[in-house]
Amino acid sequence: MRTTFNSSFLQSAADLSRTSVELARRQREVSSGRRLNTASDDPSAASGSVREHSEMAALDRYDQTADTANSRLSVADSVLSDMLDQLTNAKTTILAAQGSPVTDDQRDAYAKELAAIRDSLFSDFTTTFNGTYLFSGQAATVAPYQKAANGTISAYSGTTSAIAVDIDRHTSVTVSFNADAIARGPDAADIFTSLTQAIAAVLAGDGAGMAAAGTAVERAFQRTTAAQSENGAGLREIEIQKGRLADQRNASKTRTSNFEDANMAESITKMSQADTAYKAALGAIATTGRVTLMDYL
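Above: the chain sequence. Below: its structure as tokens.
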């Protein structure tokens, strides 16, 4: 009889332990709103949750990169717009200098205007964003051009290849520019040299020289327009991709919720069932503990 009593008591104690653990788990679900608090709650769901959190972290990194790229290209767009304004002013000034009659004082004023435009373009091409140059290609820490004390501007110092960043697993955008492709392109001289030649032609009253310089400025204008169009395409791609990233993250968040969050109606029902089972186990162990002399006879 003692063996039977001990066995019954141990079984009741095991049932009490099991039901108390289940009740505690269901109470935790209801209070926290989560059905997955530890990996042991549901190993399969825990694996899926880890996978989705990793996915969301990757999407967040792409989104942050897209934001930085958007800011960088927005600055570039503003700079390229200013370049177009400066080149338009240069064309207008050269045309005015070709007019007749033009006094020496007027020629001097036009030459000074072209020199100011040249300096403004130099400033545009050496624009930085977060400490890196926008127009040096991949040589982001190297200024694309240097200006000597006498105003002479050096040849291009950057690279011909540009920097591209990933804004998704399969999408990248270019976030730097080869200034030489804009300032010189296939021409023998860059825009700085062309403007220097224009200044000399204006001061000398050289009509042919001014015409040649005006044509060179027009070609630079066309190259700058093409660069701005390319930059605009990058901005549009970022806008589209950020929408996709948001959709992908929302979908991943929904899947994560399915893995982790509790169905409150179901959890409350199961908590009630666990409470009933726990009370039943308590009753059973209390009954087992009531041993009398008759149990030994």
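Residues 43-97 form the longest helix (55 residues).
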